[in-house]
Amino acid sequence: MWKQFISKLPRKSHKQDQDSTRNPNLGFNVVNPAVKRASAAVFPSSVIAGIEPLLAFKDVPSSERMNLFISKLSLCCVVFDFTDPARSIQEKELKRATLLELLEFVSEYTSKFSEPAILASCKMCSINLFRVFPPNRRSSNSNSGENDNDDEPTFDPAWSHLQIVYDFLLKFVTSTSLEAKVAKKYVNHSFITKIIDLFDSEDPRERDCVKAILHRIYGKFMIHRPFIRKCISNVFYRFVFEMEKHNGIAELLEIFGSVITGFALPLKEEHKIFLWSALVPLHKPKSLGVYFQQLSFCVTQFIEKDPKLASTVIKGLLKYWPITNSQKEVMFLGELEEMLETINMAEFQKVMVPLFSRLKHCINSYHFQVAERALFLWNNDQIVNLIAHNRQVILPIVFPALEVNAENHWNQAVLNLTLNVRKMLEEMDDALILDCISNYRDGVEKTNLAVEKRKLVWEHLENAASSLQPIAGNTAVLVTH
User: Fold this and answer.
1) CA of 328: how far to CAs of 249, 289, 384, 415, in Å?
2) Which Gene3D superfamilies has this protein been placed in (predicted)?
3) Is residue 64 within 8 Å of residue 29, measured between CB atoms?
4) Which of 166, 292, 314, 320 is an S-S bond match for 283, by CB 3.0 to 4.6 Å?
5) Is a pLDDT exceeding 90 seen at residue 158?
6) Residue 152, Cβ density class (10 Å: 0-12 exposed, 13-18 middle, ≥19 buried)
């Protein structure tokens, strides 16, 4: 289509110059009929308002520049195939030059954008960005196990055009010439939904551009804020409970991190529901490490806003606590420490029993990094203070784990940390530690007696079985232990 348009462009002739001189009424609002017919092959004549789109903005009067802007936008609604670099080279370069002109115009324009200009801008961006993606660009329909090269980003071959369109959309949305009350008709729910869908792009450059644009839309269009939050929540729900595959979770969490800082107090129930139904379950997927930093920041922001939420979040962490993934377990312990630094005493007491019951297992972990990270919690003065005020409950839970480590843990660093923590607890309450030691020894003795009793029972059963005569036709099998 662009090729047809370029081939039909009339060449400037001496005769045309004479005609223009003889007819003073000919100007920028009148275009050669041949050009108009060629233009109509690319975009509707009703949209171009009689302005030739290849003219430069500086070559038309100020009164006609908005019409020229709309004409150039319409021209850029043609999408090219970039899978073949040798195809439509001239047309692609012409479109790229036109996109750069549009970007410059939006950056410098100071008057208010007309409604047709807003419509044309949103249409151009939609056609270029919200198209049907090839398999290598989007992965939302793929299963988590189908892609072997998830760590390798995919770069879109059309980026030379897409980048300018994204830059244009960002400048357009942030421009003071764009009135939100007019633009909300076109930057609507459908437009926003498709913007959010773009977060699943495998091209990290694209995700960064979309992140900046959605953030600006959230800031400018207050009427759309609840809808944007709902859409992001839905992405998280599908990711956690259905697919466990999405490329843009980290970027969406970055946006929400800045959104949370602007929440007014007291927090709305909607925001609390988002915390425990969307953010906390995000700790479940295997790919937590990709977006853990952003998720932890969001959770911490919530707790700083309302410290009463800390116990709810900790219960959620315990619910999704990894048992066989040591890397995730170390991350959980790090996030837990951040929460315990800000938690108040009342909220801490609600969760201290299940929390330290889990930490006891972490201390005894054979993976030295997990055990080491759990013991590092005692280096935090705030956490030690919480433990000291509730030592009658906490010390009997964790002390047996320390004794087990001190007796037989294989890692020297963990052993040294264990002895240091044990010494700290002895200094905290020597009498209580003596009771814990006594109870631990009694428990070990009871365990040994139970083991010995079970051994004797098995020996009795084996002896009884060996003394029985085998039944004819059957062969007895003796199981030894």
Assistant:
1) 17, 7, 24, 22
2) Leucine-rich Repeat Variant
3) yes
4) 320
5) no
6) exposed
Q: Using CA atoms, how far apart are residues 238 and 278, in angstroms rounded to an integer?
A: 10
pLDDT, tens digit, 9 for 90 and up, residues 361-405 = 999 999 999 999 999 999 999 999 999 999 999 999 999 999 999
Contacts by 127-132, CB closer than 8 A, 24 or more apart: 127/77, 127/79, 128/76, 128/77, 128/79, 128/161, 128/162, 128/165, 129/162, 129/165, 129/166, 129/169, 129/194, 129/198, 130/194, 130/197, 130/198, 131/79
pLDDT surpassing 80 at residue 360? yes
d(CA 224, CA 293): 27
pLDDT tens digits for range 411-458 = 999 999 999 999 999 999 989 989 988 888 888 888 889 999 999 999
Across 17-37, b (16+ Cβ under 10 Å) vs e yields eeeeeeeeeeebeebeeebee
- What is the Cα–Cα distance from 421 to 377, expressed in whole angstroms? 10
Lowest mean pLDDT among 89-103, 151-165, 200-214, 329-343: 151-165
The CB-side HSE value for 398 (13 A sphere, CA atoms) comes to 28
Through-space distance between the first and last CA atoms of the chain, rounded to whole angstroms: 82
How confident is the model at residue 298, as a pLDDT? 95
Q: Indicate the pLDDT class of residue 224, thresholds 50, 70 and 90.
A: very high
CA 109: distance to chain centroid?
Answer: 34
| Conformational region of residue 50, where left means phi above 0, alpha means psi within -120 to 50, and beta covers everything else | left
Task: Report d(CA 303, CA 50) in Å as an integer.
Answer: 59
**Is 190 buried (19+), middle (13-18) or exposed (0-12) by CB count in 10 A?**
exposed
CA angle at 480 for the pair 479 and 481, rounded to the nearest 5°: 125
Amino acid at 442: D
Q: Which residues contact 214 (CB under 8 A, 6 or more apart)?
A: 192, 195, 196, 228, 255
